[in-house]
Write a structure and sequence with these properties.
This protein is α+β, with helices and mostly antiparallel strands and 85 residues long. It has one domain (4-84): Alpha-Beta Plaits (2-Layer Sandwich), CATH 3.30.70. The protein is built from two helices and three strands; from the N terminus they run E-H-E-E-H. The chain has helices at residues 19-29, 52-84, and strands spanning 4-10, 34-38, 41-47. A three-stranded antiparallel beta sheet has the order 1-3-2, with helices on one face. A hairpin with a 2-residue loop joins strand 2 and strand 3. Helix 1 packs across helix 2. The longest helix has 33 residues, at 52-84.
Length: 85
């Protein structure tokens, strides 16, 4: 039986607000990995063969994706309103 590994991935303070949405997506994408938010980033609990670099890239991507989504939400809503009027 594979042993559990723990990987800590730091997240810059200015991106912390986007972590919960990113974790929600990551839990769907990787149900076998337990993903937790910690004060300075994200911790992964999983099987031994977890590729930390792969998950660090994926977490960064998901956080950045959520940041862009939230920052452009008002603009997209305004564009939509102009189209339906």
């Amino acid at each position: 039986m594979p042993s559990e590994s723990i990987v800590d991935i730091p997240v810059p303070l200015e991106l912390q607000e986007f972590v919960p949405a990113a974790i929600l997506r990551l839990k769907y994408m990787f149900p076998e990995i337990k993903i937790e938010r910690v004060p300075n980033g994200v911790t992964l609990h999983g099987i031994e063969d977890v590729d930390a670099r792969k998950f660090e890239r994926e977490i960064s991507y998901q956080i950045y994706r959520e940041k862009i989504f939230q920052e452009t939400l008002t603009m997209r809503q305004n564009l939509y309103q102009m189209l339906v009027m």
